[in-house]
Amino acid sequence: MSTKRTAHIISHTHWDREWYLPYEKHHVRLVKLVDTLLDKMDQDANYRSFFLDGQTIILEDYLQVRPEQKDRLSKFIRDGRILIGPWYILQDAFLTSGEANVRNMQIGHQDAKAYGDVSKIGYFPDTFGLVGQTPQLMQQSGITNALFGRGVKPTGFNNTVSDGDFESSFSELIWEGPDGSQVLGILFANWYSNGNEIPVDKEEAQAYWERKLADAEKYASTGELLFMNGCDHQPVQLDLPEAIQAASELFPDTTFVHSNFNDYLAAVQRSGKQELSTVKGELRSQRTDGWSTLVNTASARVYLKQMNQLGQAMLEKVAEPLAAFAHVLKVGEKYPHHLFTYAWKTLMQNHPHDSICGCSVDEVHREMVTRFDKSRHVAEAIVDDSKQAIADMIDTSDFTLAGEGALPVVVFNTSGWERSGVVSIEIDALRLYFRDGYTLEEASAFVKAADITGRVLVDATSQPLPCTVEDLGLQFGYDLPDDKFRQPYMCRKVRLTFEAGNVPALGLKTYAWVKREAEWADSSLFAGERAMENAAIKIEITDNGSFTLTDKKSGRTYRDLGVYENTGDIGNEYMFRQPDGEKPLTTSGLQAQIRVLQDTAYQASVEIVHDWEIPASGDDMLEIEQRDLVYYPHRQAQRSTRMIPMRIRTVVSLSRAGQGVEIESSFNNQAKDHRLRMLFPTDLTAQTHHVDSMFEVVQRDNTPAAEWENPSNTQHQQAFVDVSEAGAGLVVANLGLNEYEVLRDGRNTIAVTLLRAVGELGDWGLFPTPEAQCLGEHTVRLAIFPHTGDGAQYEAYTAAYQFQIPWTLAQTGIHYGRIAATYAPFQWQGEGLAFSSMKMNEASGDLLLRWYNLRSQHAEVKVRTQLPQRNFYKSTILETQGERLAVEADDGLTLPVGPCEIVTIGIQR
Questions:
Q1: In this predicted model, what pLDDT tens digit does every residue of 243-257 receive, in sequence order?
Q2: Which of 310, 388, 439, 602 has the greatest CB tally within 10 Å of its CB?
Q3: Cis peptide leading into 408, omega within 30 of 0?
Q4: Residues 61, 92, 126, 560: which is the catalytic one?
């Protein structure tokens, strides 16, 4: 190391909006901090720079209370002294969707540009591990770096030096994504507070800098040393200029600079003398002892993850494509950019790691539930407007030929692939408005007396379909017209449930309930009292409530699926810790109550009930160890000997066209300090497995690295996990169940966490969180899709992605229209590609479509459209216009897609 070195001191504060204090208490402290910062910058030109934690929401939070300070704040941003962006919030990486991360970058850039320059800094100071596609996402955002604190050795928990088996030789490294994209990685090897509270006193400064310079030089590849002057909620160090002056006098061989990330990164790149290590893919602290990875935040407060999954799906997979569909088809149907921005911001306020990870105090997570509801309600309002606008454009006139009194129903498939499945809709068989002179008594009597018998559901070719009809009786309703006062009415509600078949991707299919006799023969999917079977699979329920699945394509049978496992948890919101020596409880030895729940031509369901007893809580030692701040791996607590009942109701369903089986599990949790999982033994021979992550399906080892000491090897997932061997595989999909483990039990069992109940936050003190025990009613949903490998796994992955997306249905009337009863504005093909989003760009008015390549080999996407727009171009996640794409003779295009590439196509209007 050269004796001449530069100490780059970067002032910042890492601002968790909510964590060990509720949001508003942190908010008050933020206002004080920014007030102090502005005063300091006004008074002292030597206080050169401050990095505002990479998230523009800090500006919103501050100006919400101090709107009169906007001009003053804006001036320092324009002058380059306060650096902002590129994100809206600092989000968790593994618990938020790919599209949520894209919107985060888009909105962060949008908001930062309103003030001045956007900091092109890939900033992840405390993110709990990083996904493999981060380098590509950074490059597509014009960012060539990533600065992070977790995921790669050479540092362990609390910044202790590890054993020397480094993944990277230095704190500087090259990070490469699965597509080959590379960024300069900077690991905060001594944490993002290694330059905190620098002394002015000469004697203190001497000792401080001798230690700090040596610590930085342990890891740095150059003489450009990074010192982060700040920490979590850290106030501004007002005497920093004086502290820098003192350091300069004490260490003349070192240049001390009040720096910023742009200058520091440029200096590192200029002075690079050492060959840097290349680290590839995910950064999950794989080469550590496994005790402090914070991975079990994936199962803390599962209810939050479930709400988040639904909220993301409603925005990115339902509302955005429907609103874009309506906008490009109907003149005057505006795409509600303002509502989407508001809904996304509200949802993303729940995405910081201490929020979505469920590792904060109870008050924080109560407020999150309200935000989830608010965002979803906006999405639902957009969906209601969009689906009705599209339904009004469908030509339903031919349904008059299928029978009298036709009531058309539209099924929308907003996934990126053709889809079949069981759907349900409540329609008005008869509606009487009070405006037409009916009294309440008259309307109610007339509606109650209406005859709704003798009807059948038909498709656009007048073919009848099996359909279950439930008369919901007399109900009150109302319209809210755009040009009139609210319009109340009484109606006769009917619920129709049926299997919609082959609904086109990003399209619709129309049916109608008409007066006509049913013309289909009843059939059943039951092949015995406890067996269900369709063309693809067979399910057999055993006495203990587990089931056997036979994949007819591969001939492979999977046994003992759906067993429940329960263990104690003496850990905290961050990490699971099973009591020493405890043997897990399972339902494999229980006698279950089993009955047929549904037997129709399109679906069969079986109800399974387990009456179980589990320990009521941890024992008395747990509370003592929590109070004494005993580090959770060292705890000796066990489970209580007192047992309490736990009834679990499981519904296993198979549809006629289904390629897999769906599972719904409901229970009332009254136990504390425990974990509940569902087990799916695969009995497949495999050393690795595949799991859905952000914009990729990543391969992970079943057995952790040699350094891993934690008996548990739980990991993050998004939509699914897949264990496969040649010719066979099993995909287990989920809705908001983000934690799984492939057990080292000789059967390669996939274990999915349904609930984890703990009573403390953990980390740096004692913060009781009784609501993290998750007492009360819970319902979880999973699905299993077998496959034969050799490319067939992508069909199973498609089914797993579609399982994440709610169906959308609408009732409409008989009318002429410009689109057919079965219609889709786009058709696309691309082997191994996953469709990700369809939305409009606010600045250009262009339509944007995005895919990502699930394979590490070249592919191509073919796109055809019936819309008049014909100018195609390749874009990025920031939706900037790139190279023009050639249109082919059939008014479509074919675009090469690189291995694991995220590709966005723009269509000019």
A1: 999 999 999 999 999
A2: 602
A3: no
A4: 126
